[in-house]
Amino acid sequence: MQLEQALTILKDEGYKYTEKREDILNFFNKEDGYRTASDLLNYLSKKYSGISYDTIYRNLHLFHDLNILETTELGGEKHFRLSCGHDEHHHHFICKSCGKTKAIESCPMNHIRQNFDGYYIENHKFEVYGLCPSCL
């Protein structure tokens, strides 16, 4: 997702533009992979002294609710990244060291569904964790 597209979504959904929100989106636009609220706080505190985790989390959850950010859980902590912009259903490989991701184009549910005849599967999440070539 591009920065301009994310800002347009905010505006179209009735949320006001703020410099902090743009800085948050710029942070994720520059990063290649998932990042934590702490990473974002460290980045923003250089410009906004006294910024709180409450402000960080409120905006992260807003961006997630608007599908601007994707989330995953690594090591018991929620991580965020800009939505990758794939329109089709897909999953990710996530590097446990640097947080970089790579799209997995096929979905294992296509194979697994045949073992659940008579069940209603509402949703699923599939992620593969390991180390990217740069972190090996």
Key terms:
single chain; alpha+beta; Arc Repressor Mutant, subunit A; Dna Ligase, domain 1; 3-stranded antiparallel β-sheet; 3-stranded mixed β-sheet; 5 helices; 6 strands; Fur_C; DNA-binding transcription factor activity; WH-like_DNA-bd_sf
Structure overview:
The chain has helices at 3-12, 19-30, 37-44, 53-65, 109-112, and strands at 35-36, 69-74, 77-82, 91-95, 101-104, 127-130. It has 136 residues and is α+β, with helices and mostly antiparallel strands. It folds into 2 domains: 3-82, Winged helix-like DNA-binding domain superfamily/Winged helix DNA-binding domain (Arc Repressor Mutant, subunit A), CATH 1.10.10; 91-130, Ferric-uptake regulator, C-terminal dimerisarion domain (Dna Ligase, domain 1), CATH 3.30.1490. A 3-stranded antiparallel β-sheet has the order 1-3-2. The chain has a 3-stranded mixed β-sheet with strand order 5-4-6, with no helix packed on it. Strand 2 and strand 3 (77-82) form a beta hairpin. Helix 3 (37-44) crosses helix 4 (53-65). It is globular. The model has no long low-confidence stretch (mean pLDDT 89).
Show the helix and strand layout.
Elements (H helix, E strand, L loop, with lengths): L2 H10 L6 H12 L4 E2 H8 L8 H13 L3 E6 L2 E6 L8 E5 L5 E4 L4 H4 L14 E4 L6
Parallel strand pairs: 4-6
Antiparallel strand pairs: 1-3, 2-3, 4-5
Helix pairs in contact: 3-4
Family: Belongs to the Fur family.
Pfam families: FUR
Keywords: Cytoplasm, DNA-binding, Iron, Metal-binding, Repressor, Transcription, Transcription regulation, Zinc
